[in-house]
Every structure is written in structure tokens, then in C-alpha cells.
Amino acid sequence: MKLKGVYVLVSILFFLSINVSYAATLQTRYGGQAFYDPDNNVTWLGNANVGGIQSWQDATNWAAGLIMGTADQWALPGVTGDPFGYLYQIRGIRDNAQGPFNNIQSGYYWTRQNVYDPYAGSNAYWQYSFDNTKPSPTRQFYDNPFNPTGTAYAWAMHNGDPLQGLDVSPVPIPAALWMFATGVIGFFGLSRRNRG
């Protein structure tokens, strides 16, 4: 009967490890001008519209030339790892629910790369929207992959924590949960053994 309780506890911990949002609190940098995200090990500008509406090339150049404090090496967010999607899906950031950020627009934001567009069958520049009226994060592909002349918003991102260097790794919280679960199982095993 006691073993059944252990199975129930392990099942609950497993369920939590799958379903709990692991979003750690965004950490203020440069007096609120930027925010470090320990989950993804990236830092976002606090003002999501300081770059304004620009062509892709102008937005890329603006981000690359940005310096805040001692931090340079800013860039537009990439597509790999979907940093915009993480803000939208996990952190709940929208144009009407901006969290610690400000000036998030409902229009589209440029991403850094031109990547494969499955609809066009070729590479294309991606754009991302934080429009709260959409049921899920909305992306669009800019059709001209080699010379994007349209305009969109620019929001810069920095890899790592600029106050601690670029090699800050986020803590793998799901692994910590598994270690906790293993400890609980071992505790119950020892207590059962001591009673027997």
C-alpha cells in the first residue's frame, strides 16, 4: 500500500515536470533599459520599438551598431530556438500584455535570418507579430529572400547576460526536478528499508 503512494508521488512529479511553465523571472539590466531572460540566456531591449519601422537591412545595421553600457553585439532575434515564440507562448507577451517591456507593437518584427519557407519552397525572411487578437503567435514570410525591401519593426536581442559575459548558461530546471524526484524515491526506499 505504501509503495502505491510512492508511485502516486512520482506520477505527480512527472506530470509537473512536463506541464509546469519553467519561466524564471526576467532580470532587470541597465536600469530597465534591458531585461535578461535566464530561461533562454538572452537579453532583450526594454523598449520594443526604439528601433522603429525599418527595412530589414537598416534594422540589421541598427541592431549591430547598438551599444548599451559596455554591451555591444546586439542583433535582431534569430529564428533558431524561436526567441520571439518563447516570449509569446511561454511568457505571454503581447501588444496588450507587455510584461516589463514597453512599446510592443501589433505589427510585424524582423528576424535575423532568411530561412526556408515551406509555403514558398525557398528561403525567405521571417517576421513575427505580437498581436493579441491572434490565437497563436503569427509569423509571416517576406517573399523576396535576397532583397527584403519592405518594412517592419526592429527589436534587438543580445546573446547571454551582458553584465556577466556571453557564457552564462541557464539552469536546466527539468533536470533539477528529476533529481528531486530521485531523492524523494530514495528517501522512501530508505525509510521502508529501515522499517523492515
Topology:
Elements: H1 2-19, E1 27-29, E2 34-37, E3 42-45, E4 53-55, H2 56-64, E5 74-75, H3 83-89, E6 108-117, E7 122-129, E8 138-142, E9 151-153, E10 157-159, H4 173-195
Antiparallel strand pairs: 1-2, 2-3, 3-10, 4-9, 5-10, 6-7, 7-8
Helix pairs in contact: 1-4
Sequence stretches where pLDDT stays below 50 over 5 or more residues: 12-21, 166-173
Number of strands: 10
Tell me the count of domains: 1
CATH architecture: Roll
Biggest sheet, in brief? 5 strands, antiparallel
Helicity range of the residues? 25-40%
Describe the structure.
With 196 residues, this protein is an alpha+beta fold. It has one domain (24-185): Roll (Mannose-Binding Protein A, Chain A), CATH 3.10.100. The protein is built from four helices and ten strands. Strands 1-2-3-10-5 form a five-stranded antiparallel beta sheet. It has a three-stranded antiparallel beta sheet with strand order 6-7-8, with helices on one face. A two-stranded antiparallel sheet has the order 4-9. A hairpin with a 4-residue loop joins strand 1 (27-29) and strand 2 (34-37). The longest helix is centred in the C-terminal third of the chain and has 23 residues, at 173-195. The model is unreliable at 12-21 and 166-173 (pLDDT under 50).
Short summary:
Helix content is 29%, strand content 23%. The chain is an alpha+beta fold and 196 residues long. Helix 1 (2-19) packs antiparallel against helix 4 (173-195).
Descriptive labels:
single chain; Mannose-Binding Protein A, Chain A; 5-stranded antiparallel beta sheet; 3-stranded antiparallel beta sheet; 29% helix; globular
